[in-house]
Design goal:
about 100 residues, alpha+beta, name from scop, 4-stranded mixed β-sheet, about 45% helix
Length: about 100
């Protein structure tokens, strides 16, 4: 998930939600995009479900022109890989913390 508040008069907010199934998907794909109010809803839903949200203006600009169900373009692989690595690490930390409580 990435979001961006653009620096212009309207402060347009952009959100893109990604999905990636390592064993079945050739690359991450876009599952939701939105601007302004819809972007706020996408971000709120992500947070409600414990999905990490990360701000990355350049990545948001690249992905915001693509349609839902599109695979991310090659140019975005490095940035998305960094985000996925961060998310996997956070999920592992959370799982380790949960198992220590039991």
């Amino acid at each position: 998930m990435t979001d961006d508040t653009r620096n212009n008069d309207k402060k347009e907010k952009v959100a893109i939600a990604l999905e990636y199934e390592r064993d079945t998907d050739p690359a991450p794909k876009i599952v939701a995009t939105g601007k302004n109010e819809l972007a706020e809803k996408i971000i709120a839903i992500a947070k409600e479900h414990g999905v990490e949200v990360r701000q990355d203006r350049e990545l948001a600009e690249i992905l915001s022109v693509l349609e839902v169900d599109s695979l991310i373009p090659f140019e975005a692989y490095a940035s998305v890989a960094e985000i996925l690595s961060y998310i996997y690490r956070k999920n592992r930390e959370k799982m380790d913390g949960d198992s220590e409580k039991n």
